[in-house]
histidine kinase
Amino acid sequence: MKKISIKIGLLFFCLIFMMEVCLFFLLHQKIAHSRIAEELSALVTRGNNHRDVLETYYNDETIHHIALMEGKSDTEVVITNNQGEIIISSTDINNQMHQLIKTEKKEMSRNGKIIENNWQDKPYIAAVTPFETDIDNGFVYMFKDTRQVKELMQQLNRHFLIAGIATAIVTAFIILILSRIIARPLIKMKEATKKLSKGNFSIQLENSSNDELGELADSIQSLANELNHLKTERNEFLASISHELRTPLTYIKGYADVAKKDHISMTDRVNYLNIITEEVTKLTTLVTELMELAQLDNNTFTIQKQWFPICDSLKKISTIILPSFQESGITLRMICPENYQILADPIRFEQILINLLDNARKYSPRGTITTVKVKKENADIKISIQDEGKGIPSKDLPFIFERFYRIDKSRSRELGGTGLGLSIVKELVDAHHWKIEIASEINKGSTITITAR
């Protein structure tokens, strides 16, 4: 569970640590160069001060005073004449000093110059300043042991090391907290998906963010809700199939056993055999519709679209279904003012209309009217089937196209319905990329509208 937070933490730490190292290095170099520049500038300034004193009070006492003063400080002074002869020095002159004193000094500025600044490899850093008096001219050499500069740099390095370690620890602590905060929703989503993989679809993901993680959480929650719905629907579907198959099979077995008895009359036997035939017909219809739904689900059926006159097709459908309406005492009206052309599969179109009309007939009382009306709105053709039946409660409308869904199970079974007709209609309408809507009022009837594009 914590692997993701560790990975995120390490990634952020590496990135930030690299940035800090670069920034610390640049800062260190800047400060180091500034400190060396300050030391060199101080060395030149000190030589310039001695020059000013010598030019104002040039005598042996002043020269000795300058040498004595430098002997008590962390710098050394060497005063020479123009010929390079040493007048006085505050310390014993070694080979490195001799080499620097012998350095050629062309175009010497009055404000002096640095003659050695390599503090890392050389024993001294040095500066020289010329002086001019009425008595003598010469140079003031200032030396500083680079060990002091190196100690200063080592001290600076220690400070930077301590600051770097402290910064790394604080950064690691902050990143650890932030990575856990970032990873927490991911860990919860991982646990949720693990539950989904095990078949537990009743999960609830809390989401309070509007970023990509929030969208991912919403997607997982939607998937869980959909899978939970499908699981419930599947269980109900299997239960409904079992029930629908068991009922006719029970009738068939029961009446077959009775029909086999010797003492019953031929009239009763024929009656029982007729009941068995009816139940076999229902069972055949159920199996046929189930096979058709399976084909629709697997997209193994084909939609052969073609243009044909819709009014001519409605007349053919009316001829097929009108006898059953007359037998039920229901008037069937077809309103198709113009012979509009429609792009559809003629066989599937007839199947859709016949299913809807048969459903309207079953749930409408005698003496009512069922109306099929065709009209055109812009580029769409709207086909509405309106009945004057008992209507559908508003709470049932969202589920009316689900398989085996019945408002009144006993009434549906009495009428011979399987609960699959409207499901097949919905699948066929979707296959045509059309739209189907239903509106209903209790005891006033229902209107199903198909919008063909």
About this structure: The first helix runs from residue 3 to 56. The chain has a mean pLDDT of 81. The CA atoms of residues 317 and 353 lie 8 Å apart.
